[in-house]
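Protocol step 4 of 6: structure prediction from sequence.
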Amino acid sequence: MLSLLPRLIFHKLTDITPEFLHQRGIRLLMLDFDNTMLPYTAQIPQPELLSWIDRMKQGGIQLCVVSNSRKQKATVFCRAHNIGCITHSCKPTSRGIRRCLTRFDAEPRQAALVGDQIFTDVLGANCAGATSILVKPLHLHNFWLKLRHGVEQPFIFAARNRRITKP
């Protein structure tokens, strides 16, 4: 489905719970990395993120980073925390998302992709048939990120007005 509207909106990644995902039949959570899990400018994860990863795993949710990045930062992080990782995913195309679904033997209806960008993460998830979850970017550290976030605001507003948002 070609849509720029996120199915769900959370303030931050760590607000999502295993129980919430299970209620919706989601067993695989695909994660954007930069500005969703860690700010672009950070190397060390916050304790809250590490605790959340443990809660997800204990709650039976499979995790896999699906990132457009070509840098090693996501790969190193995923290896250190025993999380699946697909880089060079080419979002918003569904190539990387489909690779992830195949790797975890999941149907799109059993998966969600959470990210901070409408034009890559949300569109990619929607096109692949997975649940799209938008979170607030962790850090808008430059002009281009701020500009992109401003352009996304009408879509966020429309999604909230459709009552598809998680408070």
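Step 5 (inspection) to follow. Residues 143-161 form the longest helix (19 residues).
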